Every structure is written in structure tokens, then in C-alpha cells.
Backbone:
């Protein structure tokens, strides 16, 4: 028997607790009760691994769904092997908060862990505030190198309904399979920085393109710190918070990332240096095509 700790993350009223009730007890509670603190449930699964089947116990931590409880969330995330990120299809802000708050605060405590994303309340079609394809785009940034290892019947993003039970079992099966494989997703941000430095090409990057400007800004930020580990931790946290995909950056995302990087630098550097760095990076971003 293998035991793994996972967390269920997302804003209040997205349906996290209802999904657990559906998965663990096969029941749905239509009334809404705000989770207080953290609630833990246990569910056993049988997961194929090679020619064998492994009995997996998931300890499912349902976390208080309000941003700002950083200390509580940080304690809960210790020792986590994987996470569910849940948004409510009828509320756009619940999708935005995944990258603005939940993923950065999780990765500030644990290294990259497998993530499975759920667009919940698919039974309310006609009231959608965003489309599932938007969630799929976000998910593609966080499971680099592991998504292709899943069996054909499993994915890293689902449209779910805690009310009908649609795809609820699948999201747990997918994360169970991923945490059992113990394969960590790649970190595109760290890999990009290491490659740029190793190849020595960043000083000659074409900053007229979004990718070139992103390359230059990443290296420019990291070179300003003596501690490479601290620099990479801050860089990863702020780029994730900005929702910037370094493999396909947007100008809006890049400008937002520049603001967040300046906020991070302000904790360590004088205001004049921070402002100079921010303006230089903004000029690079403004000068891009796209």
C-alpha cells in the first residue's frame, strides 16, 4: 500500500468539498458550507504501474478557499506529492486566481509537483464565464514532460460536475497515476535560464521579439543577485504569478511580470536601482513585435 498526500486548491464555492464528497462517498451536497481551515479525507485507488496494479491511498487535504491565509496554506502544503486546481466555469475570477495566488503559494513551499486541473460545474452550460480550453492552456505550462506519460484515457485537464459526478473519478485517477510515477514536471523557467547562460547567447538575444525580450529580462533579473537559488525562486514565483508562459510569452504577461519582478527586487535593493531595472525591462518589452 502506497500513501500519498495531495491538496485540493481553488477559491471558495468552486465545488472542492462537493467533489471530495462525490469521489469519497459518492454523494453530492447542494447546499454550500465554507470550509473552515483544512479538512482531510482518505480514498483508496488501484493504479496500474507497468505490469502490476498498485493499491494507492490518497490523503486529500481540502484547503480553506480564500487567498491571504498564507501561513495556513504554507503549513498545509508541506510534504505534498500533487495537487488539484479547481475553478468554477461560471466565475472567471476563480480561473484567474489559480495563477495569481494558488500555484505560486504552492510552489513557494514544494518543488514542482504534478497538477491536475478541473473546470467544475459543467452542468451549468449556458452560464459559463470562460471556456475549458482556457484552463487547458494554463495546464500545459505546468506538466511539461509528464503529460505524455499518461494512459490515453487520462488527461491533466477536465470539465467536471460534482453534481452529476461527471469526470470526478477521472481527475483523481489522473493525479493518482502521476504521483505514483514520481516523475517531476520539468521547470521551463529554470531550464531556459540555464541554457541561456550555458550557451552564452543571452547577450546577443534579439530583444525585438517577445521570446528574445523574455530571455533578456530573465537573465537581467538573475544577474542582479549573488545567490542564484534565491534569484530562481523569486523569478519562478513572480513569473507564475503573472501567468507568463516562457515558451510562448505575451506582451501583456511580460509587462505584468516586469511589475512583479520589481516588487520582488524592492525587498533587496534600493528604490532607484529597482526603478532603473524596471524601466529598462519595460523598454525591452515595449519594443517587441506582438
Residues:
Amino acid at each position: 500500500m502506497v500513501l500519498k498526500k495531495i491538496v485540493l486548491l481553488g477559491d471558495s464555492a468552486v465545488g472542492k468539498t462537493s467533489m471530495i464528497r462525490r469521489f469519497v462517498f459518492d454523494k453530492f451536497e447542494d447546499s454550500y458550507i465554507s470550509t473552515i481551515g483544512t479538512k482531510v479525507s482518505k480514498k483508496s485507488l488501484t493504479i496500474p504501474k507497468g505490469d502490476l496494479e498498485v493499491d494507492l491511498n490518497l490523503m486529500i487535504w481540502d484547503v480553506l478557499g480564500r487567498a491571504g491565509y498564507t501561513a495556513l496554506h504554507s503549513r498545509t502544503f508541506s510534504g505534498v506529492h500533487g495537487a488539484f486546481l479547481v475553478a468554477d466555469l461560471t466565475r472567471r475570477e476563480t480561473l484567474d486566481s489559480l495563477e495569481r495566488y494558488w500555484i505560486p503559494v504552492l510552489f513557494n513551499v514544494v518543488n514542482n509537483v504534478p497538477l491536475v486541473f478541473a473546470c467544475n460545474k459543467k452542468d451549468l452550460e449556458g452560464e459559463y464565464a470562460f471556456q475549458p480550453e482556457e484552463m487547458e492552456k494554463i495546464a500545459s505550462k505546468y506538466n511539461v514532460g509528464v503529460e505524455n506519460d499518461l494512459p490515453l484515457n487520462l488527461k491533466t485537464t477536465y470539465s467536471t460536475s460534482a453534481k452529476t459526478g461527471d469526470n470526478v473519478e477521472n481527475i483523481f485517477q489522473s493525479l493518482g497515476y502521476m504521483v505514483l510515477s514520481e516523475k517531476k514536471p520539468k521547470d521551463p523557467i529554470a531550464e531556459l535560464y540555464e541554457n541561456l547562460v550555458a550557451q552564452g547567447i543571452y547577450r546577443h538575444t534579439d530583444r525585438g521579439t517577445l521570446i528574445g525580450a523574455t530571455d533578456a529580462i530573465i537573465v537581467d533579473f538573475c544577474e542582479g543577485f549573488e545567490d542564484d537559488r534565491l534569484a530562481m525562486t523569486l523569478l519562478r514565483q513572480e513569473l507564475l504569478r503573472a501567468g507568463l508562459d516562457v515558451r510562448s510569452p505575451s506582451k501583456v504577461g511580460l509587462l505584468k511580470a516586469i511589475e512583479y519582478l520589481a516588487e520582488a527586487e524592492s525587498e533587496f535593493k534600493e528604490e532607484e536601482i529597482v526603478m532603473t531595472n524596471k524601466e529598462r525591462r519595460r523598454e525591452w518589452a515595449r519594443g517587441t513585435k506582438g
About this structure: The two ends are 52 Å apart (CA to CA).
